[in-house]
Specification:
Helices cover 59% and strands 0% of the residues. By secondary structure, the chain is mainly alpha-helical.
Length: 153
């Protein structure tokens, strides 16, 4: 089943009664946010479509391989939004897919009114190069670079 937009789900909910909730969840489970396993499945599917291996993604994202595997298996969770953004960029997700991945990971989407997020949105659209190139752009614009796991620079 194809994933439904939020406004479509809201229309369905407007016609749904409490006793039909289980049926709603069953029918639209692909469209509902759940735990990080839905993020894992989502990003792995896109990586497969893009022909990108997990190992390549971890290298491109500049993340330790063991840590990356734990994140993509759902074994480990991060609170660092930059790590998820790095994974998305390295896995060649589009901006729309990245926004979706952030939602699935229960993190804030990139926000156009935030200058750092706005520059990241442009980077996802134009693909200026590697994560290092994106961080260089951020630094050139006096914005903080994408942090790696455990890094605070």
């Amino acid at each position: 089943m194809q994933e439904k937009e939020t406004n479509e789900l809201e229309k369905v909910l407007g016609k749904t009664h409490l006793e039909e909730f289980d049926d709603f969840v069953q029918e639209y489970r692909d469209s509902l946010l759940s735990d990080s396993t839905s993020f894992c499945a989502f990003i792995k599917e896109i990586m497969k479509r893009n022909g990108v291996s997990q190992q390549d993604v971890f290298l491109r994202a500049d993340l330790p391989e063991r840590y990356g595997y734990k994140l993509l298996s759902g074994e480990k969770r991060t609170r660092q939004r930059d790590v998820v953004i790095r994974l998305c960029y390295a896995a060649e997700l589009t901006l729309a897919q990245t926004q979706r991945a952030l939602k699935k990971y229960e993190m804030a989407e990139l926000y156009a009114k935030n200058s750092r997020d706005a520059l990241l949105m442009l980077a996802f659209n134009e693909r200026p190069g590697s994560i290092i190139d994106v961080n260089t752009l951020l630094k050139q614009n006096n914005l903080s670079p994408l942090r790696t796991s455990g890094s605070q620079d």
